[in-house]
Input
Amino acid sequence: MNNTLKVVIGVAAALVVGLVVGYVLGSTGKGSLAAEAKREKIRAQEAETALKDREADCERQATAARAAKQVLLTKEHLLRATVEMYANNYGLTSQQLGVARKHLKSSMRGMKDTPLKLAEELFEQIGNAQTLAMRLDPMARVHIEQILAKLQKLPGAR
Output
């Protein structure tokens, strides 16, 4: 055989051997890398789910805090109305009761079930007490004190 043919066959054989060795070396670790990629993908999905849960929990807590703030503002204005009643200032009493109703209405957005029903009842009672105050009826003070006692049952009122 001719020397050129031997060189061509040798080079072709070396290329084939090089390709086979390169493929074998390249594919080793591919399975472990694919498995690790799959594990990391699962971990990323779990982290995303945990993040969504935490965001939802934070949103619930923020809503509850806003409702509690409005309940406390309601309580503040009811107490101010009581002070105005003792001063026989029925006009300011009525104004304070109006502001208390506004805050209570705002707090009802974050409530559900039993607290919401109680808040709706208190909303009506504050309206009745405001009507009494506008009529210059001293019994408005008694109604305000009863409302304050019931308000303590709402979440965030203490």
